[in-house]
Specification:
Blueprint lengths: L4 H17 L2 E2 H12 L4 E3 L5 E3 L1 H11 L3 E4 L4 E4 L10 E2 L1
Length: 92
């Protein structure tokens, strides 16, 4: 998947927000992206929650590949731990 310069800019913003608290909830990221960058960069998922568009997520993954994982249980990005399976970007 490819992304635009704007997608990468938003991913870099996400990384800066992640670094502030060492985690980043999806709801916060989607809300702030919607307010700061526009609704074109987010969507409502099947549960009615706001989520970040896929190209932005791909750019964010590129920036954080070695040290950040997505926690499905908590709906946030958090630091990788020793308990996270090698090679995976998602945890329960």
């Amino acid at each position: 998947m490819t992304w635009t310069d704007e997608d990468m800019c938003i991913a870099q913003w996400m990384l800066a927000e992640y670094r502030k608290q060492n985690f980043l909830p999806q709801a916060l990221a989607a809300r702030e992206i919607r307010l700061m960058f526009g609704e074109a960069h987010v969507y409502q998922n099947r549960h009615g929650n706001w989520a970040v568009n896929k190209p932005i997520l791909e750019a964010f993954k590129t920036l954080t590949a070695e040290y950040v994982v997505w926690s499905r249980s908590f709906q946030l990005w958090r630091p990788r731990t020793a308990q996270d399976p090698t090679g995976t970007r998602v945890s329960r």
